[in-house]
Amino acid sequence: MFKRSCIINSCLYLWNSSLTARLLSAFWLAVTGCWQSGFVYHTVAADVVAQSFLYRQFNRLTGKIEQLMPRTALAVRGFYWQNGPGMITRPVFWYLIAGIVLLTAIPAAFIDRQAALTIAAGVLTMAVVFAIPESGLYLAALLLPFTSFNNLALLGVLTALAYSARVIAGGKVELCRSSILLPVLIFFAVLVYGTVTSVLPRSSAYEFSIYVAAVIYLFLIINMIDNKQKLSLLLGCLALSAAAVAADAIYDYYFGVTFVDLHKGWVDPELNPDIKNRASAVFENPNLLAQYFVLVIPITASLIAVVKRIGYKFLLLAIACLAGTALVLTYSRGGLYGFVFAMAVLAMIRGPKFLPLFFAAAVIGAFFLPHTVIDRLATADNLNDSSVVYRFDIWKSTLMMIKDYWLTGVGVGTEAFMRVYYVYMMNSAIMPHAHNLYLQLLSETGIFGLAAFLLLMYKIYQTVFRLVSSKLSYIKWLNAGIAGAMAGFLLQSLFDYGLWYYKLGVLFWILIGVYIVLEKLNAREKGAVFDGENPQGQGK
After folding, report:
1. Which residues are listed as membrane-spanning (predicted)?
2. How big is the CA angle at 438 (ends 220 and 186), to the nearest 5 degrees?
3. Which listed residue, of 280, 300, 354, 408, carries a Cα 20 to 30 Å from 246's Cα?
């Protein structure tokens, strides 16, 4: 250590006595001297800006805005004061907005309008997320079906940085030790191994990034959503987003492609000649869209029972009906069966007294189903249906592949799956996935990946049954709604695979994060110390 210290001191002495160091020092002194003798420095030092006419008018304008929108102003101040020291204060917030307008207006004069709007949206998003980190989660919930994966991942990283800045500035951190987290980490570790040992590591790395983004959102939700108001707002954003998707799907069904342009694998024209189209909207595939609605509709239904205001109840009811209509127009047999199962699980978990209500709603709903939907559902076990036949071929081919790769799989992602699948395929079509979640996990990550996933599902439903006994109606309803959504998704996943698609993959992990939040809120309401497995003060 003494020799190393002598060497460092010698190097510093040589640098300080060198000509280069002296020239740099003289240059810095000259620059600082010019700045201190300049007009701008004296203007700032004399506080001329604070006394100027423009400054006073700007403060007057922002004051008028706050008078016109008192609730918004109060909410902004509340976020800054409640979320810990070191965050942006109210006056700085308005100056920041003004600066954003100027910074985006200047380049708008030199570049096209779309690029200028993109820059403005990006800068405004950064400003709002760093001012109110929770807004990143709400924005992600709203934009999830519509934005690209790169934008969604970037928003997640930005929100994580904003949350980290809050913590560094002195914000409160509540450690979470839920029993669900260990299976999440085990499954994630298996995915890492499957990516490294993949037959196509580069392609697997890209698809692995979807899981990384999803887990980032999961941990952000666990740490940032710390009360039922924030949780309701997050789930409300998911419901509003679903309303926009449903409206787009209905429009897509009536004004989209014709039957001639419809994908041949989506419907058998001989068995279902009356089906002229299937809604797909921004998901580009009716089965993926159906999986999305299976996850979202039960949550929206549980929110109807949770919210207090009649207006919000009618709004959520309208969203649920709109989404249900769009689900029917997908003509997805797995999606429709999954939805019915999801609502049945919701009713069973909420309590036996809700089962008659479920059966009554199911009977009434069946009367309103078009005959084309009923005919479509009746072909689910028809071995003459082309889509049924090709699924059986895919499953047989995948099982043959699993026999050779059962231990570690071929690697994460659809590209790695296709790279090996063509050797085993029974027909001439190379499929991107196995059309079965459980076979896909076996083929990608081997027996360890499937075991880790099943362990995760076991721990989740262990939490579900623990929350059934909660004394809080809010937690009971959301617990039942999300449990139903997950159950419907898992049933539909027997016939399809949607986790490869980033919109469904991220949403699925967001709901897992919501479960941990429910567990945390339930323990907090009981005055317990939350440790996930057995909160202290509970079960004694």
Report:
1. 92-110, 115-132, 138-163, 175-196, 208-225, 232-251, 289-307, 314-334, 354-374, 405-425, 437-456, 477-494, 500-518
2. 40
3. 354
DSSP string, 459-516: HHHHHHHHHTT-S-HHHHHHHHHHHHHHHHHHHHTTT---TTSHHHHHHHHHHHHHHH
Domain assignment present for residue 15? The answer is no
Question: Residues 439, 396: contact at Cβ < 8 Å?
Answer: no
Q: How many domains does the chain fold into? A: 2
Task: Clarify whether residues 295 and 150 are in a common domain.
Answer: no
Q: What pLDDT shows up at residue 532?
A: 46
Provide the token pair at 346: 């919701």
What length is written for the chain?
540
Tell me: do 103 and 200 sit in the same domain.
no
Number of C-alpha atoms within 13 angstroms, CB side, residue 30? 6
Residues 496 and 290: their CA atoms lie apart, in Å, by 11
Structure tokens, 377? 């559902």
Q: How far is the C-alpha of 362 from the C-alpha of 381, rounded, in Å? A: 21
Q: Which amino acid is at 303?
A: L
Residue type at position 395: W
What is the H or E stretch that residue 324 is in?
Answer: helix 310-329
Q: Provide the residue type at 429 as one letter.
A: A
Segment 362-409, tens digit of pLDDT:
888 888 888 888 888 887 777 777 777 888 889 999 999 999 999 989
What is the rounded distance in angstroms from the CA atom of residue 124 to the CA atom of residue 134? Answer: 15
How large is the greatest C-alpha to C-alpha distance in the chain, in angstroms?
92
pLDDT tens by residue, 218-256: 999 999 998 889 999 999 999 999 999 999 999 988 886
**What is the domain range of residue 129?**
51-168
Both 412 and 464 in one domain: the answer is yes
Q: DSSP 3-state assignment of 537?
A: coil
Q: Is the dihedral of CA 162, 166, 169, 174 positive or negative?
A: negative
Q: Which residue has the tokens 């001297």?
A: 33
| 278 belongs to a structural domain | yes
Do 413 and 203 form a contact (C-beta atoms < 8 A)?
A: yes
In a domain, 498, yes or no: yes
Is 21 a residue whose pLDDT tops 90? no
| CA-based torsion, 284, 289, 292, 296: positive or negative | positive
Neighbours of 433 (CB within 10 A): 23
pTM: 0.79
Look up residue 264 and give its DSSP letter.
G
Short-list 525, 100, 502, 481, CA closest to 305: 481
Give the C-alpha separation, 131 to 23, whole Å: 42
Residues 436 and 354 in one domain: yes
